[in-house]
Amino acid sequence: MHLEELQAFVLSSSDYGESDRIVSLFTLEHGRIKGFARGARKSRKRFGPALEPFARVNIQLFLKNGLSSLRSADIIDLYSGVRNNLEAIAHAIYACELLELLTPEGVSLPRLFRLFSAYISSLDTGERGMAGRRFFEANLLNILGYRPSLYACSRCGAEFDMRGALVLYGGEVLCFSCTGSGRRISINALRKLDSCLSTGKFGAIIFQKGELGEIALLLDELLMAHSGRKIKSLDFLNQVSD
Q1: pTM
Q2: Of all helices (H) and strands (E), which one includes residue 74?
C-alpha cells in the first residue's frame, strides 16, 4: 500500500465520531471511492473547506477496498459562482447525488469525470437552466450504458415515423404498433436528444418550445429506473428552480 495523489470531486461527506469525516469522492483515476478523513473536523491545515460538496481537489490517500485512508486535500476550485446562488447549489448537489447513485465503485470513468467537470463549470459561470440539467443527465446515462432507443422501437425494431414514439414506465421507448399506452414523445424531441449525445459542449444544443418537457419525461423515467431509490435532492431542486 502506497500513498496516491488523485484528482477528485467531493460528492458528499458525513461526520463520524467527534472529529472525523467519511467522504464520497469521484476521482479521475479510480472513479467513485470513499475515504476516511481522520481529524478532518479539527484540522484546518490538512483539509479546511476542501471536503465540501462539489469542490474540486487534489487528494492524497492510501487506496483500500471499501474505505480509503485520506491524508490531505488541496483545493483546485470551490466554484464560488455556484456557492453564491441557491439554484446553482441545488443543481450541483443533484448532479453529485446522481453520480453516487448510478456509478459503480472503483471503476475509472474519465469521460464522465470530464462531463461532470464541464457541468459544474457551466453552473459556475451562470448557465443554470433546465437545458443544462437535461444535457448532463442524457450524457450521464449514455456514458453509463443506459442510452434509450431514439430511432427505432426497442421491441420490434421498427423505425419511428413522424408520429414519434411512446414512453412507458421505466423509460422504454416503443412505436405505436407495439403499444397504445404511454406518454408521447415527438420525433423532433428524439432527434434533439440524440444531438445532445453527439457533443460534450454545454449550450451547444438549442431546444424549441415543448421539446425539453418531452425529453424530461423520458430522462426522468430512465433515472428513476436505474437509480433504484428516490433521488433525495430532487425535491430541493424542484423547489428552487424557475
Answers
A1: 0.94
A2: strand 68-77
